[in-house]
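Check this:
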Amino acid sequence: MIKIAIDTGGTFTDFTAERIGEEHPDERHFVKYPTNQEDPVESIIAGLTELAAAFGFTLPDLLKETEQIVYGTTLALNALLEKKGVKTALLTTEGFRDALEIRRAQLKNQWDLRALTPPVLIPRRLRLGIAQRMDYKGEVIRELEEESVIKACEVCRRAKVKAIAVCYLFSFLNPEHERKTAEIIRRELPGVFVTLSSDVAPRIREYERTVTTVLNAYLSPLLKDYLAALKTRLTAYGWEKPIHIMMNSGGVSDIDAQSELAVKTLMSGPAGGACGNDGLSGLCAKKRTILADMGGTSFDVHVLDGEGQKLVPGGEIDGYPLSLPMVNIHSVGAGGGSIIRVDEGGRLLIGPESAGSQPGPVCYGQGGKEITITDALLLLGLFPQRQFLGGKLQLCHDKAAALMKEKVAAPLGIGTVAAADMIYRVAVEMTADALRLVTVAKGQDSRDYTLISAGGAFPLFAANVMETLNMREVLFPVTSPVFCAWGMLGAARRCDFSRSFFMEQDHFDASAIETRLQGMKAAGAAELRRLGVAPKNIAFRVTAEMRAVGQHHEIPVVWEAAYLTDPASLAAAFYRKHEALYGYAEPEKAWEIVHFQLECYEKGVKHRLFPFETERQGPGAAKVAGEPFGLSGMISVPVYHSCDLQEVLTGPALIAFNDTTMLLPKGFETAVIHDGVCSIRKSQESPRKGGKEYGQGQ
């Protein structure tokens, strides 16, 4: 049985595959292939063909032997970032069509009068009020006027909208009016995509629910067409099984269910990395880890704090709130393709714009006109010019050097190599700051965490970021260049339900809670069975989102069956969590339940490590800039290969892997801790300055 995972990023498309079974020895392969921005499906077919060759198959034979394909894509995310969704209308309760523009009174930069807010995705003329109303209990106080919906449909017809979002007040308690509206729209406007807030985000908070529903309408037609094209192309090569897609929650579903829920796949690629973080930390017995994934476009960070994978009830992307459960990922624009510029004040700036794969960095020789981090790394000598991407791409050193001199070195009044080194050092600090935001800024000590290096670019930065943050150890898996795709290989099929459910302490009703939870579990079990999960492998995790009466925000409390008969223990759990988060608790205050979140997932799915190469090649040598290694001037360093890791290697050195290179500064060493994972630490003769001593356990 072969299982394949594919992650389409803005620069590269990554493929991982494993063959497990009694009839054949275990076999694992991975491939990186440049993403064709004009036709991403073409990159998938080309990469799968290369993957098939690694197994000794043709593509049709590979697909015949494959049991499951899991896919992650940034298509919906990129469409949002570039504002290239379809023309969309919003139908909402009469008198409330300006919720998108009013937003929330409390903003992140509320004291900055020039702070930018994200553009409203639907113009006011297409935000249409509908005659209907429900109260805060979900009871009808004004029946839906069908003629009002029909008139709105006529406006949409004239405007040639492609999608309609429907979001009525309190529909999360009673979706009757939204469903009737959808029936009318489909009758009046066949072919127009319709999405309902009661299906996408059935939770309180009107603005967040409206935005989430609008985003889904704005993006889903694009994703639906793209996934249909992918399915058609794979079918032409003999694929007849479902295609699974990674979701924001770190689980997988099939494209038949998710193609109309694009908003649930916005972070599908990085979510694979979060799943991989969970898997690798378990395999290496590390409880507290930080995944740092630097790909071609972005730098993504995910934290595990010792309590396993946790979802947050909502997030924010490009300034737009999402009212959906998702893994907590922090991203900054510092990938290998991030564009470098010098502003009028002489400041060196990195990103967030990226050169992508086409035209890509200047050194790709494909017409790139902007200097990137990748160009700087090449000029520093940090990866082999003729072996980049396994030899698929020959790099142009001279073009990168000429443009670096023109655009960076000359404006700063320094040499070309010095400019490249400055870019390197700024990138180290940018990525270190991203790690501080998820640890120190939240009251956590970064020294308590193990850093996991992922992405094709980060192994060249990992040791220096570790040094900057006084961390003890970096773990480097051989699948680092394709880490998100590797994470998807071990992702479980799952579905998530979030429902608003108001119950104050003085009105605790165990029967009502049990009825609600059983209904959610029945729906979740049915969906997993549809996805092919055996009933014995279905598991549930319930979280109650609670707050003190009068508070504005909720905190999650893992639900236990004992709470139904002992609400005092529920109160104790809530106050403990409150104190852990905020440093205090007020048990004299009454509490209330606001939401229930249910995770339904497949048990028993495991990650498996890919082994290192075993054929020894012998070390080479490279002339490099010394500063990234903790030295000065141009120096010569040994270049080892992954097969040389059977022994402890000390810096300064470079270690070449398939599709990436690890930088080992002076005073650092690396050794294998599992077949497929090595560890970078400070050398014994170079103890850490201050903080915890080298070798202390976690």
Q: What stands out?
A: Residues 206-236 form the longest helix (31 residues). Residues 534 and 683 are 49 Å apart (CA to CA). The longest strand covers residues 591-602. The chain has 17 helices and 34 strands.
